[in-house]
Amino acid sequence: MYKYLDKVNCPEDIKNMTNEELDILAKDIRKFLVKSVSKTGGHLASNLGVVELTLALHKVFESPKDKIVWDVGHQSYVHKILTGRKDSFETLRQFEGLSGFPKEIESPHDIFDTGHSSTSISVGLGIACARDIKKEKFDVVSVIGDGSITGGMALEALNNLGYLNTDMIIILNDNEMSIDKNVGAMSRHLSSIIRNSTMNKVKDEVEKIFTVTSAGNLIYKTASKVKDSIVSQFTPQQCELFESMGIKYYGPIDGHNIKELIEILNKAKKKRGPVLLHVITKKGKGYKYAEEHPDKYHGVSKFDIKEGIQPSNSKSISVAVGEKLVQMSAKDDKIVAITAAMPSGTGLDLFQRAYPERYYDVGIAEQHAVTFSAGLAKEGMKPYFAVYSTFLQRGYDQIIHDVCITKKNVTFLIDRAGLVGNDGETHHGMFDLSYLNIVPNITVMAPKDTQELELMLELSAELNEPVAIRYPRGNAYYLNKGEYKKIEVGKYEIIEEGKDIAILAIGNMVKHALEAKEMLLEDNINPTIINARFLKPMDEKLLHELCTKYKTIVTIEDNIISGGFGSRINNFIIDNNYNVKVENIAVSEKFIDHGNIDSLYEAVGLSSKCIASKIKKI
Ligand SMILES: Cc1ncc(C[n+]2csc(CCOP(=O)(O)OP(=O)(O)O)c2C)c(N)n1
Ligand SMILES: CC(=O)[C@@H](O)[C@H](O)COP(=O)(O)O
Ligand SMILES: [Mg+2]
């Protein structure tokens, strides 16, 4: 099956391989990646794009003495294959299996845990500065994509790096893609460099002349000589973007030419001060479907290699949100939609197609997205910022400072709220109920199912204040339980009457509570099930009734236990001196690993079975 891959178990195994052997190994690795990820799911296109780059890095540098820091880290599978973890790939992103991101606990070669984008230059600079204080000698390389470098943190780090003039190398892996097509002025500038580069110009001339005359050899040597000038003289090319910050720019460099990469990296090692290598790669390289659709093959579930990803007939909650927002926008031309580089993930790609003039993809820039939305609201627009819960953490100060203090009319569509599963601790949206609980002036709601989510979207359109609607990752689902009519702010819903115990479940935990009730009925326990639609404002009237009528109150939330929905109910009970027993069922105060969502719910005690057994114990 593989010519060389079976002999490679650590970076030392490739040190003496020739470029031709490395090219064959690259083919092996691509075959392995497609085969393995098609079985487990994971990030495919980004990894296919960095095979030669990763081989060259491990050929030239001595990891882990030299530090290679991967930005986001979704493209670190090749790095993991080369550093002794090839045989664990069938456990990729599974519960207690290999992580899909760099993990310090997994290998000394994983220098720093990543998952959120744009952190690698800050990390690299910190490591390099510590190295210099300790007067140690090793190289620091941060590998960052053209999408991730648009993140504010990366620009802050570049500014500081140029100022400190620290010895470190930045590899800008430019495939002109974020998850979807990359956006922004930086991306446009970098693409213009690629288009105008001598590398491409020479290539075009050679191809043009080569096809016209038979003097191919002569012209071919000329071309390689010109291309070599970037490599041999290693003179920084003009790129104001970085040079103006004191960062020496070299590029564009062919990110699939191992020979060129190794030569350039060896030269970069010898340079003093900050060096940026602009490496051009193709996202999805080597697998036809991924080359043609790098966005669809960015993050994949299991698929058939021959057929490729087949369209699924189930609709995601995000698509339902996108459809509803499009529908609402037909009647309200003040609605504008904002995403931070996640149009397809949040369903806003539907909005972009319907109302391109009222749609903004700001790049991987959540802080900017929040305050940009506040600016839009200032002038009477009705901005909807759709963002994953975990990534909204990046814009937390902006939520307080720019939206809530002056009650700007911004609605946050918080997608991937709660545990997300295979992406693990850097991606679980398990803090938003807590981090919003303490912010004044914002209404926070969570629907029991997708139909109620649409009703909440309709309600948000009538409100003129900060609003957040949080909903989980996954396919649209419909409980057909309880009522589905216009929602009143702060009103919970009694879904099923019972006795002795009142269960207040919020958001997707209503479904788990109803399933748990089915199990409890077998033990003659018949709890009342309340759909606590709002983290805040609370339904105080109903809470007073519940605390008078029931001896035990149970709260359930797909969120960390500290400071979330349950703690809000606890405060109500304490503040009103009710003598009721309270049980908060939530994610305990620790970070939760990756794994499929059902095994995680089981592990943290949020599965309906765990809920039922906890309530039985009460
Ligand atoms: C703060 C943050 N926002 C959004 C994401 C989601 N995300 C993961 S990878 C990615 C695109 C990264 O593009 P690029 O850096 O160019 O890497 P490529 O996949 O093209 O190699 C995005 C937006 C994230 N990981 N972190
Ligand atoms: C690496 C990254 O942050 C994204 O690719 C993320 O993994 C997408 O998550 P979903 O699969 O939930 O859209
Ligand atoms: Mg990219």
Automatic annotation (TrEMBL):
Q: What is its EC number?
A: 2.2.1.7
* Pathway in which this enzyme or protein is active: Metabolic intermediate biosynthesis; 1-deoxy-D-xylulose 5-phosphate biosynthesis; 1-deoxy-D-xylulose 5-phosphate from D-glyceraldehyde 3-phosphate and pyruvate: step 1/1
At the top of the EC hierarchy, this enzyme's class is transferase
Question: Is Cytoplasm found in the keyword set?
Answer: no
Record's InterPro entries?
Dxylulose-5-P_synthase, THDP-binding, Transketo_C/PFOR_II, Transketolase-like_Pyr-bd, Transketolase_BS, Transketolase_C, Transketolase_CS
Q: Which cofactor does it need?
A: thiamine diphosphate; Mg(2+)
Which Gene3D superfamilies does the entry mention? 3.40.50.920, 3.40.50.970
- Family annotation (SUPFAM superfamilies): Thiamin diphosphate-binding fold (THDP-binding) (SSF52518), TK C-terminal domain-like (SSF52922)
Q: Where is the Transketolase-like pyrimidine-binding domain positioned along the sequence?
A: 315-479
Q: Which residues bind Mg(2+)?
A: D146, N175
PROSITE patterns listed in its UniProt record? TRANSKETOLASE_1 (PS00801), TRANSKETOLASE_2 (PS00802)
User: Among its keywords, does the record have Transferase?
Assistant: yes
| Domain of life assignment | Bacteria
Q: Which reaction equation describes what this protein catalyses?
A: D-glyceraldehyde 3-phosphate + pyruvate + H(+) = 1-deoxy-D-xylulose 5-phosphate + CO2
Identify the keywords attached in UniProt to this record, alphabetized: Isoprene biosynthesis, Magnesium, Metal-binding, Thiamine biosynthesis, Thiamine pyrophosphate, Transferase
Q: Which residues bind thiamine diphosphate?
A: H74, G115, H116, S117, G147, S148, N175, Y287, E366
Q: How is the cofactor bound?
A: Binds 1 thiamine pyrophosphate per subunit.
User: Which GO MF terms are attached to this record?
Assistant: 1-deoxy-D-xylulose-5-phosphate synthase activity
Query: What is the role of the protein in this entry?
Result: Catalyzes the acyloin condensation reaction between C atoms 2 and 3 of pyruvate and glyceraldehyde 3-phosphate to yield 1-deoxy-D-xylulose-5-phosphate (DXP).
Which HAMAP family does the record cross-reference, listed alphabetically?
A: DXP_synth
The UniProt entry's sequence similarity note says: Belongs to the transketolase family. DXPS subfamily.
Task: Provide the assembly information.
Answer: Homodimer.
- Protein name (Swiss-Prot/TrEMBL): 1-deoxy-D-xylulose-5-phosphate synthase
